[in-house]
Amino acid sequence: MDTVKRVCQHCGKPIHGRPDKKFCDDACRNTFNNQQNAITTNLIRNINHALKRNRHILAGLIPEGEKLAKTTREKLIREGFNFRYFTHVYQNQKGNLYHYCYDFGYLGLEGDWFLIVRGKE
Questions:
Q1: What is the top-level taxon of the source organism (predicted)?
Q2: Is the distance from CB of 100 to CB of 89 less than 8 angstroms?
Q3: What is the count of structural domains for the chain?
Q4: What pLDDT shows up at residue 8?
């Protein structure tokens, strides 16, 4: 017979049943795993939120039917744009480096100006 008392890893209640069981019920198992993953999940959620916000800001600066526009760093920052977050970079044949937030990108120009571009689908 099993003489070692097994307890739930989340709440500490005694466990009955299979010898490899770690939690007393599904609620404890879910709560324990959610707490373990909370830091990573929140980090990913915050980064995705910043990326979506950046994309929305870039998309709003290009007039309907156009493929590009110009704006200033000040306007982007005022809108809430975060330059730390972008999905990928693209270097064209001239060596210009575009930073993209999904399908919208920006290229730094002289004097804190930026060229905003709509990516090709």
A1: Bacteria
A2: yes
A3: 1
A4: 93
What are the Cα distances from residue 101, in Å, to 17, 52, 79? 51, 8, 15
Decide if 101 is inside a domain. Answer: yes
| 101 sits in which H/E element | strand 97-101
Range of the domain at 39: 26-118
Rounded distance between C-alpha atoms, residue 1 and residue 29, angstroms: 25
**φ/ψ (deg, to 5) at 75:** -65, -40
Report the chain's C-alpha Rg in angstroms. Answer: 25
Say how many C-beta atoms besides its own lie within 10 A of residue 15's C-beta.
Answer: 18
3-state secondary structure of 114: strand
With bands split at pLDDT 50, 70 and 90, how would you rate the model's confidence at 1?
very low
Is there a domain that residue 33 lies in? yes
Alpha helices in 16-103 (DSSP H): 26-61, 73-79
> Is 12 a member of any domain?
no
- Please give the angle made by the CA atoms of 67, 71 and 75, to the nearest 5 degrees: 130
pLDDT digits (tens, 9 = 90+) for 36-52: 888 788 889 999 999 99
